[in-house]
Amino acid sequence: MSLSASVHGALADVGRQTWDRFAGPTGDPFLSYDFLEACESSGCASARTGWAPRHLTLEADGAVVGVMPLYLKGHSQGEYVFDHAWADAWERAGGAYYPKLLSAVPFTPVTGPRLLADTDEHRRALVSAAVTLCEREGLSSLHVNFATDEDQALMTEAGLLPRQDRQFIWSNRGYATFDDFLADLSSSRRKTIRRERREANAGLDIRVLTGADITEAHWDAFFAFYMDTGSRKWGRPYLNRRFFSLVGERMADQIALVMAFDGDRPIAGALNFIGRDALYGRQWGALEHRPFLHFELCYYRAVEFAVEHGLSRVEAGAQGEHKLARGYLPRTVHSAHWISNAGLRAAVARYLEQERTAVADEAEILTTEFSPFRAQPRS
Question: What does the pLDDT look like over 272-291, one tens digit per residue?
């Protein structure tokens, strides 16, 4: 069987039917044609913003047998896997780190398949095609962020450098109610969370909106929250107003929008996407400071939703040791990296070896010494 790869400058060139034939079975809302194409058609993921699409399709005798999300990146923003120091070192040595090639979901630190194909042979061929594209275009590097364990193993076997980090993820241990979850926590954490929830809910009407209940007025309000958070914390929000309308139109049944109202006035919100077996917390914002409202909207309401809908976990995004006290435990996440220059590759490999040890040690300490759970969980 003869394999060949094609590069596409827009997801629309691949087509919904072809893309979702491979992305749909994953149950990952962020890999869907609807989400990724909304990033592109809204202008959020475009050459202008430094996210130029270069998606791969793998063909066997004229039939598509695999796809891979790829972007030509002009910077390292919006990735949540940090290689700024590598770029700085290479550019100080006279090299050009950018542009680089990235396989990821734009602005979304969520683990999921990146090598979308039915066989390991075809997944290996996608990795080879991405590396060949780097070599052909003279690019410094290929990065595959938030890869699954299976993809990571294949890419390490193919010679990419493995990297580890950690995120804080809540796991459903068969809870029937939020109180069942609280029963697994230490007495002090249980009391603290109940107090935080009482204070956060005081005087507010908090609703979880899905499907047709989400209107453009809700998106107007949420976008104001999002922009306020971005301007205060990150400097430049990645998503525009058009993006939220597009995903609201296309993916309403896969969205849980938590909104806090003071009377009829919305003052804060948290956006979640619903996967096959997980709830994914993404953006949040507030126009008023209310004690513990961030924890209520982003963490506690997410846990309640997961319990009520039988979801196995809540993934609440990157960073945030404060999540640990709310029942979100550290879990390893993976990325893989191919670097063209032998000297830079060797230096990065040494760094990653040390980093993996540090990440594993930190996760062990956080879990054993700072876990909010009782020593003997509820049976």
Answer: 999 999 999 999 999 999 99
